[in-house]
Amino acid sequence: MSLRPANRDQLRDALAAGDGPGAPPRHVAIIMDGNGRWAKARHLPRVMGHRKGVEAVRKVVEAAPGLGIEVLTLYAFSSENWRRPADEVSDLMGLLRHYLRTEIAELHANGIRLRFIGDTAALSDDVTLMLDQARTLTAANTKMTLVLALNYGSHDELLRVTRALAADVAAGRIAPAAIDAAAVEARLDTAGLPPPDLVIRTSGEQRLSNFLMWQAAYAELVFTDELWPDFGAASLAAAVATFSQRDRRYGGR
Ligand code: IPE
Ligand code: IPE
Ligand code: MG
Asked: For 154-173, what is each residue's pLDDT tens digit?
């Protein structure tokens, strides 16, 4: 059956009926890659690619709710991206500050709830302050949840979960035998969010690069050759359409 729900109520019914072929993804996560190559192809400095990448973020965030997406997670800066030259890291942090300063009010007006995953405590104090303010301001919004992955890496996240569990065991709050998937998930940065149904990676690379490795266990993967600055509403719709053709089995038959 091919479901083309026209509004969110129909969509919710479709989701309640299961996620067979045709159902839209509740949670889409994107590895936004290719800014550097976009700039290089135009003989421009890399930062121009990152700037253009922010424009693609705006387009995708605007288009996502209309496609029935409830949660959109964007991989903006990985825990391994600190390995880049200091000037590029500083350009990326500058763009993040600019994005937060200029977009939060409009995101809030559009009913978007903001969340952040990754070790954000390790970012500059002014950035963590802006993140806290954005989270608090938008906490009650319901149109869509936008999750920005900042200083995020699955290994780092799972190490933090492991330490938290070890501390709980040491303090007698949980028995080792009581540690189950729910206990891990409650301590992940994504606690309370549904797992990603669809992970998209741009730029032709076909790897996860340490992104949502626990959460994406049964995600459908869509790889596109498009570079992130060229990605937009139509590209997102195409990936969602591809997703809708997939038959998800979760190990069953
Ligand atoms: C993605 O583009 C942005 C971040 C990883 C922050 P890249 O900067 O990785 O672009 P390429 O992969 O070098 O083309
Ligand atoms: C993944 O892209 C991280 C983000 C998109 C933020 P990278 O460009 O850092 O990944 P690798 O190094 O090619 O695996
Ligand atoms: Mg890259």
From this structure: 999 999 999 999 999 999 99
